[in-house]
Amino acid sequence: MTEVGETANRVESLIDEANDFEKLCNCDLNSASSVIDEGEILMKDPLSSVDHIESKCEELRRTSSLLIDKIQKRNLLLTKARELMDRIDKANDWCATGVEILAGEGGLLAVDKLLEDAKSFGLTAPEQFRDMLMQSATQETRALVTQVLE
């Protein structure tokens, strides 16, 4: 579960898979919580082996916590990958429009509109655009980001 996808469609597919996996894990996490609750009840019984039950409950707590943490990190990574793909698609569209304008007889009005559209990226200088994309890139998406920036 380390892939982040190289296309918007693949990222969406991975997000769906991660959501399905999270649902499966939630069933296991609920079961673990119930077992921990039962263990807490058993530890109150003076005839129980408290040390053994307590260690198993603690192990379940740690494992559950680790699983929740991994799921959250995966979801965050995929969300960032989706945002990156959206920005790359938007940048590609913007560049294609610019090429069409430069190749045609659009004139200064079309160039001004293109520059106005560039403000939708929320950046004030071209260097910021490059920096923003490179910061969002992962090792898997770095080649695609570099291609867009050229």
Automatic annotation (TrEMBL):
Molecular functions per Gene Ontology: guanyl-nucleotide exchange factor activity
Name of encoding gene: jg22795
InterPro entries, alphabetized: RhoGEF_Guanine_NuclExch_SF (IPR051336)
Name the record gives this protein: Jg22795 protein
UniProt entry keywords in alphabetical sequence: Guanine-nucleotide releasing factor
A cellular component annotation (GO) from this entry: cytoplasm
PANTHER family: LD43457P, RHO GUANINE EXCHANGE FACTOR-RELATED
Organism from which the protein derives: Pararge aegeria aegeria
Record's keyword annotation contains Protein biosynthesis: no
Coiled coil: none
